[in-house]
Amino acid sequence: MSERIDIAVIGAGPAGLNAGLYAARARLAVAVFERGSPGGQVLTTSEVENYLGFESISGPELAQTFETHARNSGADIRHFVDVEKILPATDPLVGHEIVTGEGSVFAGAVIIVTGASPNKLGVPGEEQFAGRGVSYCATCDGNFFRGKNVAVIGGGDTAVEDALYLSHIVGNVTVVHRRDELRAQKVLQERLFERSNVEFAWNSKLGEVKGDDISVTGIALTDPDGNSSTSIDVHGVFVAVGLKPNTQVVPDGVKMEDGWVITDQRMHTNIPGLFAAGDIRQNALKQISVSVGESAVAATEAGRYLDEIGWDTVGIKVDAEEAVS
Ligand code: NAP
Question: The pTM is what?
Answer without folding.
Answer: 0.91
